[in-house]
């Protein structure tokens, strides 16, 4: 069993995929988080009810407020491919506010020890719902939701932590 990442831990090296104008592009976690403050939130799946109705829109709405409090970039990650994450970001109006980072094979979710089994819903292995504030690659805050909950990983909760 992998240890769950904790406050004060350095993020493990993994690779995300970001959809760009030129198609999918790999993004290493080491480069992405280096030298800046990133608000990251993980959802079990793009286009799923709570994620689409509350989680992503909350971060889009609060993007300005988070950046005023020192956040350089806001990133959403899910165990979905870059095409799905790109389409979800576009349909939600995330462009310029929230960077969509695909964790297609769940490498990031596994590396931080925050996977969940969504098999009974036909989702397979996914990332749990959580958020973290990462400063220069180190976890400064970590908010992991209980299954089915949506409280701690919200943009509003994160604003209170900054």
Topology of this structure?
Layout: E1 15-20, E2 23-28, H1 29-33, E3 37-42, H2 49-61, H3 63-68, E4 73-78, H4 82-92, E5 99-102, H5 107-111, E6 115-117, E7 125-127, E8 130-135, E9 138-144, H6 155-161
Parallel strand pairs: 3-4, 4-5
Antiparallel strand pairs: 1-2, 1-5, 3-8, 6-7, 8-9
Description:
The radius of gyration is 14 Å and the shape is globular. It is built from six helices and nine strands. The protein starts with 14 loop residues before the first strand and ends with a helix. It is of the alpha+beta class and 162 residues long. The strands form two sheets. Strands 2-1-5-4-3-8-9 form a seven-stranded mixed beta sheet. Strands 6-7 form a two-stranded antiparallel sheet. The protein has helices at residues 29-33, 49-61, 63-68, 82-92, 107-111, 155-161; strands at 15-20, 23-28, 37-42, 73-78, 99-102, 115-117, 125-127, 130-135, 138-144. The protein has one domain: Glutaredoxin (3-Layer(aba) Sandwich), CATH 3.40.30.10. Strand 8 (130-135) and strand 9 form a beta hairpin.
